[in-house]
Amino acid sequence: RLLGLVEHTGAHALFIFNHRRMAITGEDVTLDEIIPISHDFEIVEVRGLELELEVRLPFGSHTRLFLHEVNKAWSGKMQLLHLPGSCIGLFSGMLPTLPSLHRKGKGEDRNDLVRSSSHTMSNKAQMLTMPQFGLRDNLIRCELLKSEELYTYVKNFRFFVGTYNVNGQAPKESLRPWLSYSPDPPDLYCMGFQELDLSKEAFFFNDTPKESEWMRAVSEGLHPDAKYALVKLVRLVGIMLIFYVKKEHASFISEVEAETVGTGIMGRMGNKGAVAIRFRFHNSDICVVNSHLAAHIEEYERRNQDFREICTRMQFRQGDSSLPTLSIMKHNIVLWLGDLNYRISELEVDEVKNLIAKKDFETLHRYDQLKRQIDEEAVFKGFVEGEIAFQPTYKYDTGSDQWDTSEKCRVPAWCDRILWKGKNVQQLTYQSHMTLKTSDHKPVSSLMEVGIKVVNEDLYKKTFEEIVRNLDKMENECIPSVSLSMREFHFRDVKFMQRQVEMLTVFNDGQVPCQFEFIQKLDEPSYCKPWLTANPCKGFLAQGSRMDIELEVFVNRSTATQLNSGCQQIEDILVLHLDRGKDYFVSVTGNYLPSCFGTALHTLCLLREPIQEMPLETIKELDINNLMTEKPLDIPKEIWMMVDHLYRNASKQEDLMQQPGLRNEFEEIRDCLDTGTPDSLPGSNHSVAEALLLFLEVLPEPVVTYSLYQQCLDSSSNHALSKKVISMLPQCHKNVFNYLTAFLRELLKNSAHNHLDVNILATIFAPLLLRSPRKQDLGEKRKTQDFLRHFLDPDLK
């Protein structure tokens, strides 16, 4: 069954649904009963009572969140529910007391699938972080996690992990040779796809019919000797990850979350990046990542950067919103698969093919970029990859086993890889599947035997009771206290989009464990300023233990403008609060170096010198009073430098505006624009192009001002009206718009080389030049693109 909380015009009710199979859409469920949340509604802990209706809920974050929301709904009718501590380790029951709703419980053939309401022991320790529980229960949770070996044992399960770059093709053959090659059916399937759809519609709107086509092919290709339940599917443009589990194991899967990270141009476009699913299987936390990293043989540094970006930005929310997010590496086991795009270098194509013909994969592997980067600890530190005993999986002529015969004649490479990190993992097979010929890649699979921690319920109960007895003895004995490694932190020369981190160490020097949290100050929305974060911002410390807290300063588009103008400074006070203890104060200061990124166009037009050569007071005066001593520049010199560089060096650059640059090169470009040194822009063409896009994105007032945004939408279908709107812009904004669109028209003259067209440029530049003051819907987005096309395509007149 499914249990839903429904709100309508201020009234609340519980809806109980039946479902015969995995509930995906409304057609899969039927409404069985409605229970109003009224004055007669009651939630009780069940202890062997004879009930007319009993609803058992699984332990875990979803149940905690659900009960919390029910409590909020009920609190308007009665006093807020307090769950007694004795319900720990049992289950929560809900009992309506309205006579008209009483009914005898029906016998139910309980569904085995992931969304069933069957009781699982696997995440009992996690339920103790419910908001209703305080320090005592966090102590219990901590002790349970520390004592995990006392009540768990390791049991092996078979995981099928597979990756397939399908090159935008539809499925044309059965996937059973890939998915069902082993005699015994796996317990879990994790399958990653890349380049699911290469169309512009998929790239720009993240919508593709290929998803359902490949889903069907996967479902038909699963091992025929077992029945499987779909747990989760996640997709970012053409990167898709599918997770199936044997039906008999489905009730032991919990805390399923999925996230995506785009690493394409400006760190957002999803043509490259990763998707990931994290879940709890029995008592083990597992994260599966499917990534598609940057292409081209010489771009291994960009691939390394993509890997680091994915690890940093992929954060999973926990069911309890008060808990910090989980990164990829904070799991017991990490499985990483995908088209990692690392190539074979320093060998000519004929030398590579000769080694393949001899099956001398050991020698060939020495020239593999991924192996070299791992050996240098540049990426995948702590990960393991099995021995490669199969020929490279890229690049083939589609529909054959013939190496690439195109004009480019790509060097064969092991682009498609599977790695893992964690204990109790044994790889049984690692191979490619040459019989599949749909794509220019071959699919790869790894069959792994993974040791999973399983709970022994009797030992769990015994351990739990012993922990509670020990805590009872020490309750209220002492007031907690900590010592801090430092009380004052100074961040020197903070720059736009450049992370700085200092470490604060908190040591529990008291006689009891303690719980800490950075708390809000009076009349402030958060515990810290928006440019500052503390990670973790809350935590638990056992007696005599210590924790390192990262204090990170990072200035982005939301904070740069105020810092550039001097209206705000790098100054804050953090308040570290101990539960049942005192508060500690941490001072954070720094000096920010103003940047052209995040500075208004009209201010930049008044600055003839680089922004860091100007006194902050002068910038502030210019910004506030529009003070002019001489004629302003027609356009900001920073825009001219970037556009002029691209016009002279990159008009024919392949994939310009579509391939991201390197982070370290962006920092050099930013410093050059802000200081005037060196005279010419450093970095690759892709890095300069991305810097230009970022510059436009972080303008406090976009090129087409907010005041004229609606008129742009209204005139988007008329060329003459569109030109009239631009003529109404302030002079510097009008100059920048005309200058940029003239540059884009020059790029289109070289479309045969740079692969750009009007639609691509309109899609990239419209959200930057015509930013909405509110959230855009799809119709608005299309209108802004139509508006910009009038200035890119003369035929539209």
Question: Overview of this structure, please?
Answer:
By secondary structure, the protein is of the alpha+beta class. The protein is 29% helix and 24% strand. It contains 24 helices and 27 strands. Strands 8-9-7-6-18-17 form a six-stranded mixed beta sheet. Strands 10-11-12-15-16 form a five-stranded mixed beta sheet. Strand 11 and strand 12 form a beta hairpin. Helix 17 crosses helix 18 (685-697). This is phosphoinositide 5-phosphatase. It comes from Scleropages formosus. Keywords: Cytoplasmic vesicle, Endosome, Hydrolase, Lipid metabolism, Membrane. Its main location: membrane. Residues 622-797 form the Rho-GAP domain.
Give a quick summary of the entry.
Residues 622-797 form the Rho-GAP domain. By secondary structure, the protein is α+β, with helices and mostly antiparallel strands.
Describe the sheet with the most strands. 6 strands, mixed
What's the overall geometry? globular
Q: Compute the CA-based radius of gyration.
A: 30 Å
Mean pLDDT: 85
By DSSP, the count of extended strands is: 27
- Derived structural class: alpha+beta
Terminal residue distance: 59 Å
The portion of residues assigned to helices is 25-40%
**Given the structure, what is the number of helices?**
24
Q: In percent terms, what proportion of residues is strand? A: 15-25%
Protein name: phosphoinositide 5-phosphatase
Organism: Scleropages formosus
Domain Rho-GAP: 622-797
Family: Belongs to the inositol 1,4,5-trisphosphate 5-phosphatase type II family.
